[in-house]
Amino acid sequence: MSKNKILFDRVSLEYPKEPRGPKRWRNGENGSANGNCALVLENIDLAIQTGEFVSILGHSGCGKSSLLKIVAGFVKPTRGSVWIDEHQVQGPRADHMFVFQEGALFPWHTILKNVSLALNGLKDESERRQEARQYLELVSLEAYEDYYPHMLSGGMRQRAELARALAAKPDVLLVDEPFSGLDYLTRLQMREEILYLHGMLDKTTILFVTHDIDEALQLSDRVVIMNGPPGRLHSSRPIEVPHPRLLSSPVLNQMRNDIYHQLGVHVAL
Ligand SMILES: Nc1ncnc2c1ncn2[C@@H]1O[C@H](COP(=O)(O)OP(=O)(O)OP(=O)(O)O)[C@@H](O)[C@H]1O
Ligand SMILES: [Mg+2]
Q: What is the rounded distance in angstroms from the CA atom of residue 45 to the CA atom of residue 246?
């Protein structure tokens, strides 16, 4: 296998059509191709480098979340394989991977405790609290450390989740539409926070699923477009524009138009 951080090698996924749930990691069980299954992902080949920020765009239902679940080891591909650091993904690995998603904070813990739980390696509770406080400061939530998640606004909860991701210092960060529940202005602020996080964790490889083309253009090193169903790789294109990026620049305008075109979306209505 190659020296990529994440490698998708001819990954296909079928889900059973009847409501039994996906084929999961159970006694080495693998999905089987038969008439009772729906093909969700077909022959995905993709190589992602260490530290790369890759956004995945595609219409609803084309299999973006399923792709992330395979990388996270929650779902096993029916055919093909996913490799991280040249090791085949065989199931969930909490050690180097962090899944960033809405509603992931433990509601029964304060945000300080939530962040301290993400810290790896520190045994002493007061040390953990001390370090967790530093991460809350980075996202300007130090005044709210004793708040429970339900006492925070949506944007504050997302910033607490960012603090958790920073604390975990993951090798691989999987992000599935984290800001979809936020208002437009808060989403814009969260873009800044994500860029900041990527700057702090520059060795972390980020797979970022979004429906927001501008979010992808502003944040990522590369945009991968899927079509389907069944989900296939349509294109993979680097964005070689340094930060800070002006979305109205001619290069990004052109890329935006190309992406709309590839997704079959009409921008002039
Ligand atoms: N547990 C499951 N069992 C059966 N089918 C599933 C399951 N999870 C997802 N699917 C199907 O797989 C297909 C892809 O779903 P997925 O959630 O990966 O799409 P998506 O691209 O993330 O969509 P969205 O943009 O709406 O989040 C859909 O047709 C969906 O119905
Ligand atoms: Mg999804």
A: 31
CATH of domain 6-96+170-262: 3.40.50.300
Whose CA is closest to atom 6 on ligand 1?
A: 15
Task: Report residue 143 CA to chain centroid gap.
Answer: 28
CA distance 251 to 246: 10
Q: What pLDDT score does 186 carry?
A: 86
CA of 123 to the centre of ligand 2 (A): 36
Query: What atom of ligand 1 comes closest to residue 62's alpha carbon?
Result: 21
Helix and strand tally (H, E) in the chain?
A: 7, 10
Residue 51's alpha-carbon distances to 48, 200, 226, 227, 254, in angstroms, are: 9, 11, 22, 25, 26
Pull the structure tokens for residue 258: 């190309």
Whole-prediction pTM = 0.89
Q: Where are the domains of the chain?
A: 6-96+170-262, 105-168
Is any ligand 1 atom within 6 A of the Cβ of residue 15?
yes
Distance CA 224, CA 77 (A): 20
Residues 181-195 pLDDT 10s: 888 898 898 898 889
21 lines ligand 1 (CB under 6 A): yes
Determine whether the shortest distance from the Cβ of 51 to ligand 1 is under 6 A.
Answer: no
